[in-house]
Amino acid sequence: xxxxxxxxxxxxxxxxxxxxxxxxxxxxxxxxxxxxxxxxxxxxxxxxxxxxxxxxxxxxxxxxxxxxxxxxxxxxxxxxxxxxxxxxxxxxxxxxxxxxxxxxxxxxxxxxxxxxxxxxxxxxxxxxxxxxxxxxxxxxxxxxxxxxxxxxxxxxxxxxxxxxxxxxxxxxxxxxxxxxxxxxxxxxxxxxxxxxxxxxxxxxxxxxxxxxxxxxxxxxxxxxxxxxxxxxxxxxxxxxxxxxxxxxxxxxxxxxxxxxxxxxxxxxxxxxxxxxxxxxxxxxxxxxxxxxxxxxxxxxxxxxxxxxxxxxxxxxx
Length: 317
Prior knowledge:
This protein is α/β, with parallel strands linked by helices and 317 residues long. It has helices at 2-18, 67-75, 92-95, 108-114, 129-134, 147-160, 164-178, 207-214, 238-244, 257-268, 278-281, 290-293, 301-316, and strands spanning 30-35, 41-46, 52-55, 61-64, 79-83, 98-99, 118-122, 138-142, 187-195, 198-202, 217-219, 233-235, 248-252, 285-287. β4 (61-64), α2 (67-75) and β5 form a beta-alpha-beta unit. The model is unreliable at 1-17 and 19-27 (pLDDT under 50).
């Protein structure tokens, strides 16, 4: 029984990380403007799940179930009336905003009472869309499997808010920053998502994997078979990791980072060959900041890229 509870807790922890990043990022998000019968402008967008969402007027109030989407709306100057639970530092004007739960457990009563013009949710929320939209709130589905996904979200939110110029400015900053990184791909890295008793390798199709490629690192798990439930991740193969011999290992977690690192190293040290990995011998098991890598970082993806780039540069020294 105890083992079953531990497994359930681990799966639930993984869900919290992946739910914000599992929408179909390869769908083409788009935005168009048409005229209504009365001559008023109507905005139609296609969100990152492929859903078409139409607005008869510019939305004024927003509620979000992910920190990244909240960050983007805030950066665009939108009025946030509902936000997710947060264990990270928030801007002063956002701290007072009503909490509406999180991606896994939305508080529908709070959402209904706030009656936002738009609720931004994640993949897996689709079954709740009719209920929420029946109360007069439009729902948009977000995704963050890549830097490009985040830029698409910025563009879409800028369109519906009529903040296109600000959105272009934010996206240009991200694009220009990516151009500054050396694309050597000579540093071998392993990205590990850690939850109690469960560890997964992040693939290039995940946000952290995409960032690693963009800043010039080489993902040793690139050809690991993807998981059916979470295609951006793979089961860890200790044998293949030892064979690839990564220069650095990055840990991604929602929980207490130091506890996860200790548990991960304890698990891996059961294999004697693990101690001979270059990353282990050089003490290069790096905890990635949870607010930048534990979920969608929004516009702070620039900080996430910088953090990993500087770490890769340290390995090159």
